[in-house]
Amino acid sequence: MNDTEQDNYLEAGRIAHTVLHKCAAEIKPGAGLATIFDMVLDEIESAGAAHSFPPNISLNNCAAHDTASPDEIRTFSEGDLVKLDIGTHIDGYIADTAVTVDLGDHALLCEASRMALEAAIDLVKPELVVSEIGKAVEEKITSYGYKPIVNLTGHALARYSLHHGLSIPNTGLFGNGILKEDMVIAIEPFATTGSGSVHETPRGEIYQVIGNSPVRSPAGRNIMQKAEIMQGLPFARRWLNVPKAELAIPTLLRQGNLYLYHCLSDIPDSFVAQFEHTIIVTADGPLVTTR
Length: 291
Ligand code: MN
Ligand code: MN
Fold this sequence. Notes:
This protein has helices spanning 3-24, 33-46, 107-123, 130-143, 218-228, 237-240, 245-254; strands at residues 50-59, 62-64, 81-90, 93-102, 147-148, 154-157, 167-168, 184-187, 190-192, 199-209, 235-236, 258-265, 272-274, 277-282, 285-288. By secondary structure, it is of the alpha+beta class.
């Protein structure tokens, strides 16, 4: 990795860290999801970074991929467990980081996820088999009496690419990939009071361009045009501001032009906590960009 690349990763990480904590501090009972969504966007832009994906704001048993819809009216409530997961990039060099805000009595669950992340980061070095990270995550979370979510993983990052090849498991059961010097990875242990696996729910607000078949409808063309500025990275329906978008989207999905990220949830009435950092694998060990 050359100095410019590393500087960009570090700058994206520094901005993501600052924005994440500033915005997480505004997550309180009565505050709106849309307010937090818009605040994250504003803060990232005014700090001089770009968005690598829409802020994910996922509540309680929802682990990931929820966010504000165009007409969002939901507010946070006493007792909620809120995951705020944000992404920046500088010239395509991405930072991906998350915290959980506890508006209830889930301190131990949060600690399990946070300590699992720390234990995982401590292991990071070239030639490590990633199942060792999964094993550490699983051991830490189960030591608190909770389960890791086994079908959500961390991932390698590359320029303009959020999930690049390697997955970083949250269990020791799989993962024969090997860390190499200069790899950039996101580690994100999810701790749950539920089943330990997530399923897709009907709700989905986050899309990604995955094809370029010809589009006939003006609204569809408008959506594809607006999505282009994300350069293949995910975007939110809330960003589009296209009249009749909801009529054009099903066709774009069917054509294979768009992919929809459904919300991923554990069983009803369970709670999920997540913490995440982006890390450069160096010969000297982990270089956390989002701290
Ligand atoms: Mn993330
Ligand atoms: Mn991630």
